[in-house]
Amino acid sequence: MTILHYVSDDDFLLQLRTTSKNDRLVLAKVAPAETLAATLEAVQKRIGATMPVVGGSQLRKNESFVVPIIAFRSEKNYSRLCRTIKNPDWTKYFVYAANQWTEFRLDETGARVKSGSKIGIMKSDGSKKPPPFVPRQFVFDKPFLIYLQETTGNQPYFAAWIETAELLEAAQSEKPPQG
């Protein structure tokens, strides 16, 4: 945990460690602004300000850190997605259900987010049997692009067009990996 800003026991900002280097988890005990967006903006401005933290940025002996346990599950039905499928091999099918769920839990061990979705497809005659599955092949055996980009960045920090075998190594086996 890092103390980002401390004014009083009722006005402070903390950042908790995450397993992802590109994520930031901030807890802010602050007076609310008129809207959530305005409160968020004010907190982000305080984080962006480079002022020293009175008392230091680390929790010291005899200081308390108590986080509430927050747990919820949210489900959303996307009925606007329920319609006939327009892909050529699927025109006799339609989406009859589209749902998404999110679970969030924050406790003394950290924060966890889980999310999932489910989609239901049915044939126009009422049967639920889709067309037979044809395995796809993801084999890079022709020229291709590769690039790396930070999740917060606008542009890649590395990009290459691979057209010849000059930069490639021989595969360990002839069989493509099964997924």
Residue share in helices? under 10%
Shape: extended
Number of strands: 8
N to C succession of SSEs: EEEHEEEEE
Instruction: Work out the strand percent.
Output: 35-45%
N-to-C span: 38 Å
Q: What structural category do the secondary elements indicate? A: mainly beta
In the predicted model, the low-confidence regions spanning at least 5 consecutive residues are none
The count of helical stretches stands at: 1
In short:
This protein has 179 residues and is mostly beta strands. Helix content is 7%, strand content 36%.
Protein model, in words:
The structure is a single chain. The chain is mostly beta strands. The strands form 3 sheets. Strands 1-2-3 form a 3-stranded antiparallel sheet, covered by helices on one side. The chain has a 3-stranded antiparallel sheet with strand order 4-5-6, with no helix packed on it. It is extended and about 65 Å long. Among the domains are: 2-48, no CATH class; 70-123, no CATH class. It has 1 helix and 8 strands.
